[in-house]
Write a structure and sequence with these properties.
Length: 77
């Protein structure tokens, strides 16, 4: 019984590590997509978007920075 329990823990740990890697890869692919950013709003150039290099209407292109931050999978409805 103890052996099965330990094997189950190892299997679940491996599955969790795989899921984390896949999640991190997906977030990496979304990086720069405004709809997936916590700062996203319908009005452009407000807040952190004003100087973000991913904002297509960036007012300060020479000073643009990467202000993108994943929204955790939550979208505005």
């Amino acid at each position: 019984m103890k052996q099965n329990f330990q094997e189950t823990i190892i299997m679940i740990t491996k599955m969790a590590e795989k899921a984390e890697k896949e999640r991190d890869a997906a977030i990496n692919q979304l990086h720069g997509e405004c709809f997936a950013c916590v700062h996203y709003m319908p009005c452009h150039n407000e807040g952190p978007c004003r100087t973000c290099k991913y904002e297509i209407a960036c007012l300060l292109p020479d000073e643009a920075t990467d202000n993108w931050k994943w929204n955790g999978g939550k979208s505005e409805e």
